[in-house]
Amino acid sequence: MVRNxxxxxxxxxxxxxxxxxxxxxAALADFLEVQPAMISKIRNGKGSVTPRMILIIHDAxxxxxxxxxxxxxxxSVEQ
Length: 79
Prior knowledge:
With 79 residues, the protein is mainly alpha-helical.
């Protein structure tokens, strides 16, 4: 296991946007069924990806919790 220090919280959102062909953060917010302000706060460093947000992402994407956490800063990923 190697500590992944290169990821940022924004990377998770960008990966979701790419995977589900979402054009912008407004489309991402609609996809996740959250307010756009929630995405904006996390992107601007005024909020963080909370356990609730992880569950929201899990419900919308059907990704495992482990996969989602793997895209967060400081996660441990196998290389």
